[in-house]
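User: Can you predict the 3D structure of Translation initiation factor eIF2B subunit beta? Sequence below.
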Amino acid sequence: MSRWRDANTLIDIVTETGVRLASAQPNELAVGNIVKRVLKVIREVSRGELKTDDRALTTPEDSSYDEEGDDEEYEEEEEEEVIEEQKQPKDTVGKKRPTLTTQTSMFRLLADMSNMTVREKKREENERRIKDTYHLKPLIIQEITEEIIADLDTIYKGIADQALDFIHANEVIMTTGQSRTVQEFLIRAAQKRKFQVIVAETAPTYQGHKMALALSKAGIDTTVVADSAIFAAMPRVNKVVLGAHAVLANGALISVSGSHLLAAAAKHHSTPVLVCTALYKLSPLFAYDADAFNVTVTPQNVLSFQEGAIIDKVTITNPYYDYVGPDYVSLFIHNLGSAPPTYVYRLINDNYDPEDSTLM
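Assistant: Sure. Here are the predicted structure tokens for Translation initiation factor eIF2B subunit beta:
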């Protein structure tokens, strides 16, 4: 466990750890997002911008700050000053000392008072720094518990509670892939409303089959269609609901493969597209390339390696995610409310500090 004396040292330690975690999984933007939220909490607590419970201001016994070490440092400085004074040449016996004038005595007196004032200010500053550091650790833990961990614990409930505001009776909803967030959202709406869901099978992973099975078990009228039938079925659809792997700073999203096809068909037919996502998936990064955050998986499910006569003559790419631009999204539904793509920048500013936009 690393020891730290002030907020800047703690920020450096957390940033270094975050860089290592993000480097291990560069396409999992949620890892870096959580680290950046922790850094924002540390910065706000150190600046005194957060109003926290007074009970957290008790001095922890296991604080990582060493008060004795700071006192020893101050005592060593005093000893050095005494040694310097002892090194000054002393008057020899019998040597007549110069008579001190009133002006010289006053100057020395003021100098001594000035040195004493500097020492007192330094001691007060050290004591204040010790006190602030003692208070910093419990406040950071309290804010992480109340803000970050609490949000993670209520993600699905916070999004599902808004289902009745967007899903109405006798509507036809279309989705693709398997997303627990979307699944909980639709199941909650089905408790009060009756509607139909069309699920694209999401080849070649066929996650849509698992999604359709879960919805049908919840009593929802569910139909599975091939991905090639999305455009043909879209005129009957009232809303499209998508999940998200990540939401970028420009309001675009990274979602399961096939999401772009579904969103493009919805835009052509002027069908609203709702995206259910948690706030921790919001990333302050931009995708300057559509494949910047994509993952290419094995093409075994597209074309088997047993097809030797064909596989040697073609190049197959099997992307796992799709980049869906902000122009295709109507509304983001997150665990604290909803927002259009043009408002994503504000959510990012509320959750991350500008200094932590990139982990360096």
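Residues 7 and 105 are 45 Å apart (CA to CA). The domain at 155-352 is CATH 3.40.50.10470 (Rossmann fold).
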